[in-house]
Amino acid sequence: MQQTDIQEKRRTTPLEWVAANIGRILISVLVPVVTFLGLRAGFLFLRDSDAPQLIIAIVAIIWGVGGVAALYWVFNWVLELLPDEWKAQLQPFLFVGPAMAILTWYLALPTVRTFWLSLRSADSSQFVGFQNYIATFTQRIMLEAYRNNALWMIVGTSFTVSLGLLIAVLADRSNFENVAKAVIFLPMAISMVGAGVIWRFVYDVDPHIGLLNAIVTALGGEPQAWITLVQPWNNLLLTVIVIWLQTGYAMVLFSAAIKGVPDDLLEAARVDGATETQTFFRIIIPYIQGTIITVTTTVVIFTLKIFDVVMVTTGGQFGTEVIGVRFYREFFNNQNFGYGSAIAIVLLIAVIPVMIYNLIQFSKQEVF
Amino acid sequence: MSSKKRVVVFALLAALVLVMVACAPKATPTPEPVAEPEAEFMCPSDWEMLTPELEAACMGEYDGMVVTMTGPFTDEDEVKFNESVAEFEEWTGIDIQYTGTKEFETIITAAVQGGDAPDIADFPQPGLLLNFVKSGDVVDLTDVMNQDWLKKNYKQAWLDMAQMEGIQAGVWARYNGKSQVWYPQPAFDDAGYEVPETWDEMLALSDQIVADGDTPWCIGIESGAATGWPATDWMEEIMLRTTSLENYDNWSFPADPADRLPFTSPEVKNAAQVMSDLWLHEGYVYGGTAAIADTFFGDAPLPMFDDPPKCWLHKQGNFITSFFPEGTVAGEDYDFFYLPPIDEEYGKPYLIAGDIYAMFDDRPEVRAVMDFFSRGESLRTWLGSGGALSPHNDAELSWYGDDIERGIAGLVNDADSVRFDGSDLMPGAVGSGSFWKGMTDYFSGTVDLDTALSEIDAAWPSD
Amino acid sequence: MQSKKQQKLVGQLLVNGILLLICIAWTVPTLGLLVSSIRDREDIQSSGWWTIIPHRGWVQVSELPIPENASVDSEITIEGVTATYDEFRAGVDTGDGRQFVWIGNLRNGHIQVKDRQWTAGSNFTLENYGQVLVGKEYTIRNADGSTSTVQGDDLSASFLNSLTVTVPATVIPILIAAFAAYGFAWMKFPGRRILFIIVVALLVVPLQIALIPILRDYVKLNLNGTFLAIWLAHTGFGLPLATYLLYNYISTIPRDILESAFIDGASHFTIFTRLILPLSVPALASFAIFQFLWVWNDYLVALIFLGVTSGNVQVLTQRIAGMVGSRGADWHLLTAAAFISMVVPLVVFFSLQRYFVRGLMAGSVKG
Predict the structure, then answer these.
(1) Which residue of C has its CA nearest to A296?
(2) What is the ipTM of this complex?
(3) How would DSSP label each residue in C211-227?
(4) How close is the nearest chain C Cα to the Cα of B416, in Å?
(5) pTM for the full model?
(6) What are phi and psi of B59, to 5 degrees?
(7) Same domain, A91 and A152
(8) In the complex, which subunits touch A with 3 or more CB pairs below 8 angstroms?
(9) Lesser CB count within 10 Å: N end or C end of chain C?
């Protein structure tokens, strides 16, 4: 800490200041641009090449991965040759710059463009102000989507996170950890289309095909059209699909975090006579708190964006409309770019509380 | 930095440069010297009224050029498409590269908006093409194609449907007949049932089957993201049979927005009522009304093939035969009859749907390919293999590989009127949006008929 | 002592028992997929996959003709058993261990006589996998009336394409994100907070909004159709999550470790490559698994940036999606294809799982 203070006091001349900032920007932009140009040259050759596919594949992989790694290395090497003060000023941008440059290109600029489109008419020809946003908050179908998204967020997130944590902890103590984790992880590896088929075999209205109805009829009940006519509970049944798919995600991250809990801490607690439950709540939970926040944040955002599962199973019909599907339909099927964009921006607004919470956590981090 | 590290860095860099150099010779595409001493007309000699570009293509002038295409054909359809252009590729040396995708709407929207449009795209829904015509991305074919030839080779109705926003937006490449009711022929004959000629006879037959202790109709409208479309087909069939063609046109594809017949009009509501009388009739539908919205449309006809059948009648386009159980044979295991008229005044209309090919890049070799698609020859092997009907006048009935499709083609040729699937003509927001959803909502009991119709209508773009 | 040991045993049983229950619940849907993938098309559409489990079921033993003059509305008597038509259709127990089921209708039906017996579906086939792996066969009728068979493509080319897309599209974002995560966690620079919050905000942006502008840029740069185009796209779309997850992990590395390294005179770059990367292996491995899966199962991004105008580069998901029927009813192929495409992600999972090890930071915490 003290070191940086001294540096800041010493940095007085405006010339130095200008030079340093130009350097920052240069390094942020130069790394990706040079990487990009080098890679691009190679790929234009590769695209038009007639070499056997296997060779192209191998060259492409070495080229891409090696190229990016080499670039970081080379730029750091150049940086190391600079005077120390410069180095201290510029180095953070070598680390953060490339990521930010790519994010800007691939997501931030398109988002700005989307915002601009959202203020314009369906074919983007006229400015319409907030008219699209007003429609977003008044249409019956959008209100249905908000309701469902809220449900997804609350039910989906709470089950995914708590089940993921429970399984990670149990697996850690069980005698078949690897098998158990593989079983829970398995659904993540299944493509969306595959998952759609799997759950058709569970929810189908025909008791000869749908497992759930087979059970219901075996118990003497009437078969139900679970994901179509059982409204609004069909939303919960769709949520089950996502919980099944995503618990593996939470479990993997929790599992990695639990492995990081130092053994000596656990030992110490046990020596002190703490029960397993006490150890869990007093030691493990506080220790992996950061991971819990991270996983919850990402799962909340994932459920806000929920799209594929609904698209593949009901297409948003039968009262299962969600924001993601609405956006997709307006934007691509109806080519109503204005309205579609407004819906996408609504997602950004919805995530603001999550952002603020993360910012508070972030500010607690002490840096060098 | 230690010298060891530097060595590593330089070794890496050197390796990269080496790879680049190694790839370079392979990369430069060496144009092979084409040694063709005399040009010869390679296409069928009976082709007439060729555009200059097709003429040149047949002389081999565009040999080695690539024309890219995108469309929704995948799997079997993709193979059949590729086979149908294989001979043309041989004659001309033009390489037609087709990419099929089930996410066609997304892909074509992104590709065109992103400036990476294919040369030609296949639109199964003219309503979707209309969006690109409006945005000015589609090449007007008026001066590209030989208009005299088109007039000779297509019925005027087809040419009219290709006119959008004052331009000729595409050429019609294939179509499907929709007004067929399929039935399990052997069991049907055994039971002594007779093919109905009128709507009332059809209802009487339905009642008869109910009285015999069975369910007459197999109906399923589930189709994932597109759930509801089979219901819109039924609506269109009934509209054609209960009101004038003018009303149908104003309902589906109004030339002037002021003439538009809204979904809330008595005509449309009446059609929906006629449909409800059949669909929601106690005991008419296999699995009950609840099963309609929940049965995959491709699985819907299967109970018809149980022995004995569990349901007896299934209205669907001719493509549905590819969903029938493996090994079932047309004319032996199943047959079809024409969905009978309701009101004599409106005759015997036929509902169809089809694919229109639009051109996005105006190059000579693309023009040549477009001209080829306006000829029956471009569908010849496809007709033989089944799964398509030809809108071209020069396609012969003898080219059809199966009697059912030949029969449908004949019926369409003789129909009092032929109309295109209305939902495909409507703007996407309605035709592949609120119309599907409204029908699904109504038949699954989420909303009542009036609400459904007014919600469908509300989605119609205002401009 | 004895009771403590017992307690431990009970606890162990409880842990294993609960976990086993959860695992079974989790497997049932997948089991349905697996079983369906080795049944043929008709079986899948007519009976549940669980019928392969031996169970007591009604098996037809003989057949009776339907009585004459029966009607839907009145009661019918068959071999002394009286019931309504609807009851017979649903199946009537005769009381002597048999069941009468009316099949068909009044005109063409018959009565099935069934006994309760042990039964199990046993009609299995590997044909589905064969069709997916080697390609379907299509019959085409030529112009001259002869027929020919066209063999669909096998999976090898698209499999290789998928690998070429997925491996760098997994490694590159991890590398870039790890640098950025370290920068956010341990380096001081202006704009640190605002840049981080941008990363979190971008988590929620649906990638579909980026497709059109990125494609435009690619067309201008003459980049579309190259592998680089799709790697960068996946990198861009995966970076927010990668940076966010890795930041979370890297920021929890005990401060003392870094401090002592700085005192020894190490630079940020050295600390990052020599200390942070090895310590972050579990986090890197877990993100690698996710990113690999997402890219491997991606369909849309590959289609747009590799597909439309250069039709020859097809990834596995496209190949499979194209294969499962023009209108998607081939459940038998869908199920087999789902399993085949699952193999590689599972291999990745198992090979990376061993990096989730305990005690990486052992001894680094002041006790």
Answers:
(1) C245
(2) 0.84
(3) HHHHHHHHHHHT-TTSH
(4) 31
(5) 0.84
(6) -85, 5
(7) no
(8) B, C
(9) N
